[in-house]
Amino acid sequence: MKKVICVLGVLLIVLSCSKRDINESIKEDNPEISLEIPAEFPALNGSVAQNRPTKYGVELGEKLFHEKRFSGNNTISCASCHNPNLAFSDGKQQAVGIYERVGLRNTPAIQNMAFMKFYNWDGNILQLEKQPLVPIITHEEMNSSILEVIGKIAVDTDYKKLFQKAFGDASITADRIYRSIAQYEYTLISANSKYDRVKRNEGERFTAEQERGYTTFKSKCASCHSTALFTDQSFRNVGFPLNPNPEEVGRGRVTGRIEDQMAFRVPSLRNAMYTAPYGSFGQFPTLRSVLDYFDKGVLAAENLDPILKENGNRIPLSEQEKQDIIAFIETLSDPTFIGK
C-alpha cells in the first residue's frame, strides 16, 4: 500500500512539474506585450489584467479582425466598418453590413479601448471581450454565428498554427477568438497628436488660433469632453436630432430608465478629424455643423443635460470661437495611429 501511495505521489509531482514547464514554455515563446500608459491617461480597465496582450495573441487578434469569413457571406470583417485609415471608423452615416444592410447607429472609432469603462453608444458592453459576438450575430452586420465562424476557420492551417502559438494548443474556441481580438484592440493606443507633444514639452507650440481654441474648449466643451481621453465616459442627452428608427432610445435600451432615454456615451474627440460624420447616427457631416447646432439651440427634453438647460438649451458660440475650437480639435489628430 505504501508503495502505491509513493508511486502516486511521484506521478503527481511529475505531472505538476510537466504542466508548470509547459506553462512556462508558453510564456517564454509568447511574451506579454507591455502597454505604455500615456501621461495623464486613466488607469487600465480591470479586464486588461485578465487578458494581457501577448505577442501571438495580438497577431492572431489582428488577423481575426480582418477576417471576412466572420460574416455569413464572407464579405464583411471587423475592419470593413472599423477602417484603420479612418481611426477605425468608416466614414458613413450608419454602419453598413452584409448585403448592404444599414445598421441603427454610426460606427464608433476604436482607440484607447484599454482605458474605457463602457463600449458602444449606449454602453451595453462592459468588457471588450464580450463585444466581438455582437456584430457576428447581428442581422444588419455580419448575420452569422460563432459556431459558423469556427467551422470556417478551423480548416485553415494558418489559424491552427497561430492558435497553437497564442494558447499552447491548436484548439479554436469562441472564448479564444474573443480574447485575441480584444488583445489586439487593447494595443490600439493613440497619444501622439500635436496636443500630446505640446503637453510633453517636445518643442511644438500651439498656433494663436489653436491656443484660443484650447481656451474656449476648456470653458465650453470640457465639461463632457474631459480627461486625457477627451471624454468623461458619461451618458448624456444633448438634444441632438432624433433617429427616426423607433428602436432607438439610447442608453434607455440598456437601463430601461426614462431618464436615460436618448442619452448616449460622450465620444472621445481624439482623431475626430478622421471620423466624420458625427452623432449617434451620423447626423452631422462636419464638426462645424455640430458647433452650429449647439449654438442655434438643441432639442428640448425632460432629461436634457443640465449644462444645456442652464444655458437656454444651447452653447452660445461666436464665429471666431467655432473656428478656433475646430483648429484646436485638429491638434488631437494622431497621424502615427492612422493605418495601424
From TrEMBL:
Main localization category: periplasm
PROSITE patterns: CYTC (PS51007), PROKAR_LIPOPROTEIN (PS51257)
Binding locations of heme c 2: C221, C224, H225
Subcellular location: Periplasm
Alphabetical list of Pfam families matching this protein: CCP_MauG
InterPro entries the record matches: Cyt_c-like_dom, Cyt_c-like_dom_sf, Cytochrome_c_Peroxidase/MauG, Di-haem_cyt_c_peroxidsae, MauG/Cytc_peroxidase
Cofactor list: heme
GO CC, one annotated term: periplasmic space
Residue ranges of every copy of the Cytochrome c domain listed in the record: 208-333
PANTHER family, per the entry: BLL6722 PROTEIN, CYTOCHROME C PEROXIDASE-RELATED
Residues binding heme c 1, per UniProt: C78, C81, H82
Origin species: Sphingobacterium detergens
Keywords: Heme, Iron, Metal-binding, Oxidoreductase, Periplasm, Peroxidase, Signal
Listed Gene3D superfamilies: Cytochrome c-like domain
GO molecular function, one term: cytochrome-c peroxidase activity
Listed name of the protein: Cytochrome c peroxidase
Cofactor note: Binds 2 heme groups.
Post-translational modification comment from the UniProt entry: Binds 2 heme groups per subunit.
